[in-house]
């Protein structure tokens, strides 16, 4: 796992809708930290900082180090609430973790080297069925992403969860099946028509 991202936060005392609105007027996002037998901590983060991190595909599967007035808290983002019109972040829930914590996360699956697949180069399509996989990991074993290498992939190739390499300290969630399909490579209608013309 890469070095933890550090976000500088401030404690807040005001709660409820009035306090949250006041924070948002000052370009702050109200947040809450909970878990691991500790008291709930109310904090706020800079809106631009939250937005920049929310735009990353691995935000909800990355352990973050919150610096809260001299205290460092390792957390996992659990939920982000967005404004229904502006799509700006309104609130973030963070789960506090420690070295022995096992967390449940959905890790994004990325498909790399499309240009090295002979099928895709000839016009076939990659049908993506699942873009994330649910796993259980210890604090420091949460992967940022899983990668599927498309090098040499031909028409008819099927990729399943069994093709993923899980790091030490990480296991599939009980709801995740090894046989579950992540993606497959299929011919387009045009390719099928061209193949029929050639055969004729």
Q: Rounded to an integer, what's the Rg over CA atoms? A: 22 Å
Give, in order, the helices and strands: EHEEHEEEEHEEEEEEH
**Helix residue percentage:** 10-25%
CATH architecture descriptor of the largest domain: Beta Complex
Structural class: alpha+beta
Q: What's the story with the biggest beta sheet? A: 6 strands, mixed, barrel
| CATH third-tier fold name of the largest domain | RNA Polymerase Alpha Subunit, Chain A, domain 2
> N- to C-terminal separation?
55 Å
Oligomeric composition of the shown chains = single chain
Residue stretches low in confidence (pLDDT < 50, at least 5 long) are: none
Q: Which shape, going by the Cα principal axes?
A: elongated
Please give the number of β-strands: 13
| CATH hierarchy class name of the largest domain | Mainly Beta
Report on the structure:
With 200 residues, the chain is an alpha+beta fold. The chain has two domains: 5-98, Ribosomal Protein L25, Chain P; 103-199, Ribosomal protein L25, C-terminal domain (RNA Polymerase Alpha Subunit, Chain A, domain 2). Helices cover 16% and strands 44% of the residues. The protein contains four helices and 13 strands. Strands 1-3-2-6-5-4 form a six-stranded mixed barrel. The chain has a four-stranded mixed beta sheet with strand order 10-7-9-12, with no helix packed on it. A hairpin with a 6-residue loop joins β5 (71-82) and β6 (89-96). The model has no long low-confidence stretch (mean pLDDT 87).
Which terms would index this structure?
200 residues; alpha+beta; Ribosomal Protein L25, Chain P; RNA Polymerase Alpha Subunit, Chain A, domain 2; 2 domains; six-stranded mixed beta barrel; four-stranded mixed beta sheet; 13 strands; elongated
């Amino acid at each position: 796992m890469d070095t933890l991202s550090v976000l500088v936060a401030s404690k807040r005392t005001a709660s409820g809708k009035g306090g949250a609105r006041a924070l948002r007027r000052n370009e702050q996002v109200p947040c809450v930290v909970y878990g691991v037998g500790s008291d709930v901590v109310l904090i706020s983060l800079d809106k631009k900082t939250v937005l920049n991190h929310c735009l990353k595909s691995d935000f909800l599967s990355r352990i973050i180090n919150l610096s809260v007035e001299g205290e460092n808290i390792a957390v996992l983002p659990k939920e982000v609430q967005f404004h229904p019109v502006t799509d700006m972040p309104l609130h973030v829930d963070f789960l506090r973790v420690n070295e022995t914590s096992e967390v449940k996360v959905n890790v994004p699956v990325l498909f790399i080297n499309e240009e090295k697949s002979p099928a895709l180069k000839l016009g076939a399509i990659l049908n993506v069925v699942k873009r994330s996989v649910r796993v259980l990991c210890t604090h420091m074993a949460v992967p940022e992403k899983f990668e599927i290498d498309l090098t040499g992939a031909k028409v008819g190739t099927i990729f399943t969860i069994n093709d993923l390499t899980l790091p030490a300290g990480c296991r599939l969630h009980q709801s995740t099946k090894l046989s579950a399909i992540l993606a497959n490579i299929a011919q387009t209608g045009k390719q099928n028509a061209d193949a029929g013309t050639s055969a004729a």
